[in-house]
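Hi P.,

Sorry for the delay on this. The queue was packed all week, but I finally got your sequence through. Input first:
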Amino acid sequence: MAVRRRHGCRRPPGPRHRARRRSRGPGRRGSSRPSSLASREAQYDAVLEWGIPDHSALQRLTGIQCPTLIIQGDDDLMIPTKNSYLMAGLIPDARIRIYPDAAHASLFQYPAEAAKDVNAFLG
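Then the structure:
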């Protein structure tokens, strides 16, 4: 919840507001409520479908007409590195940069190198 300020600007609630919301107790607005059965089933379905390749989406990658830079860490547990190589092979004029010993947040693990690679790509 955000608090409305003058001229329609919004700012996040302050610490006193958050403390008030926590003190309301169970069953009231702001408390932790269990999710509905429908939302739990949708989340379960999404997790099950996560690793299933979508061949039509892969084919659409060949239609990208812009130069593309793919950056990833070689220790990314969310997106396997082989998928980045697959994307780079399907996208015309794609370049790929894999950072060693970096996870999903490789841009934060190699900020100077990532900035240099992006600037070189854009330059």
